[in-house]
Amino acid sequence: MLAWVIPVGLLAVLAVAMTVTTDRALTDRTGRYRHPGLGILLLSWAAVLVFAASYWAMAARHNQFVGLQTRLDALYFTGVTMATVGYGDIHPSGQLARGVVLVQLVYTFAFLVGGIAALRTRTRAVIAHGIGG
Question: Among 29, 23, 38, 41, which residue's Cα sits nearest to residue 132?
Fold first, then answer.
């Protein structure tokens, strides 16, 4: 159980950081916060790595996946899940893995919506007022 504290804690920190980054991008009227996309991109990649490490651990220690045999498989599965493609070559077989995949889907949509909203608002501000240009 202690092994789950680290990934859950990291995901919580990333969620807070994404919320703060998105809020700053949405509410900045001064132009001081010029590149919200970079922060959003880095936070998204960090989340991908946390999920991939979690999937690798579940496959290696708990046999929760079919077809996931390497770290690259874990990264690949994370990307396929994030894109909601689902080729079926790797899939969760255990309830724990299925639960984590569902968490990743919600997490991905929240990151995506927050990131798009922040970038859209920032782009409108730049076009309308020339802020940050």
Answer: 29
Gap between the terminal Cα atoms of the chain: 49
pTM value is 0.84
- Segments forming the whole domain that contains residue 74: 2-27+34-129
Which CATH number does the domain housing residue 67 bear? Answer: 1.10.287.70
- Please give the structure tokens belonging to residue 111: 């990151």
**Taking the CB of residue 31, how many other CB atoms lie within 10 A of it?**
14
- pLDDT of 14-46, one tens digit each? 999 988 888 887 777 666 766 767 888 888 899
Helix (H, G, I), strand (E, B) or coil at 133: coil
